[in-house]
Specification:
about 270 residues; mainly alpha; two-stranded antiparallel sheet; 10 helices; about 0% strand; globular
Length: about 270
């Protein structure tokens, strides 16, 4: 592997780990467009780059979410009762969504991902959220919600924070606890999604070294190594800095990544 590629994977891991801890996201919003560009740079066929980016991103989120979850747990920011009730739906939705992703073309997946980036960017920049006037639904409601969050998260390879944090905030959960709980929910999403992308990619003949299913192992190792170190730093900063201001800056970045993603796959 070229040294430039190694440095790129490590730098990407450092950034996504910090963002995971800071904003309660798994990092896929940044990883997928960045990995798509890196795989195109490697000369990987266009019809495989988005699938490979999604699978590699999802596998990398496993380690990132563990680090972020531990950091938020130490600060008392994880509502484990909510995690326990929503996790089964998360696993079902995330695993099944990978079967859909496997049959879609890179162009379709890229456009869908870019549209989601625009949604996430607008949501963050305008701080769009309903007035918190509700209480959390029961077991069945959380299972259904978890299935939707898990399914969408696996399709766009995110830890679910972009969906989970607004959902919890809408139901009168303190934003910092919502971010911490979202970080914990990211673990079952990433594990189920990783297994799904691994299984669905086994029948694809990629002819690329160190690729298992839709997962590029060297990228996962390098990204995870750095993200594990920086996720706890992000979680620490989240309790010190005005997160809404940081979200506006991140929203602008997401919009730029959406444009880059579309230009890469079309």
């Amino acid at each position: 592997m070229e040294i430039e590629l190694i440095v790129s994977f490590m730098a990407l891991g450092a950034v996504v780990g910090f963002l995971a801890g800071l904003l309660g996201i798994g990092g896929g919003l940044v990883m997928v467009p960045a990995l798509t560009s890196l795989f195109i740079w490697q000369g990987i066929p266009l019809e495989q780059v988005v699938h490979l980016a999604l699978g590699t991103s999802m596998a990398s989120i496993v380690v990132t979410s563990i680090s972020s979850m531990r950091a938020h747990h130490k600060k008392g920011g994880v509502l484990w009762d909510v995690v326990r009730l929503i996790a089964p739906g998360i696993v079902v939705g995330a695993f099944l969504a990978t079967f859909l992703a496997a049959v879609l073309s890179s162009r379709v997946l890229g456009i869908f991902f870019s549209c989601f980036l625009v949604y996430a960017s607008t949501q963050m920049f305008l701080n769009m959220k309903p007035k918190p006037t509700r209480i959390l639904p029961g077991r069945a409601g959380l299972f259904a919600t978890g299935s939707i969050i898990g399914g969408i998260s696996a399709l766009v390879s995110i830890g679910g924070g972009t969906l989970t944090v607004p959902f919890l905030s809408w139901h009168n959960i303190d934003v910092k606890k919502a971010i911490g709980t979202s970080a914990a929910i990211g673990l079952p999403i990433s594990v189920a999604g990783t297994i799904g992308y691994l299984v669905n990619g086994l029948s694809v003949d990629s002819n690329i070294d160190y690729v298992f299913g839709f997962i590029y192992l060297p990228g996962v190792v390098l990204i995870s190594m750095m993200s594990f170190l920086t996720a706890s730093l992000g979680a620490h900063v989240a309790h010190l800095l005005p997160v809404p201001v940081l979200k506006k800056v991140f929203a602008v970045l997401l919009l730029g990544l959406a444009i880059k993603m579309v230009s890469s796959v079309i």
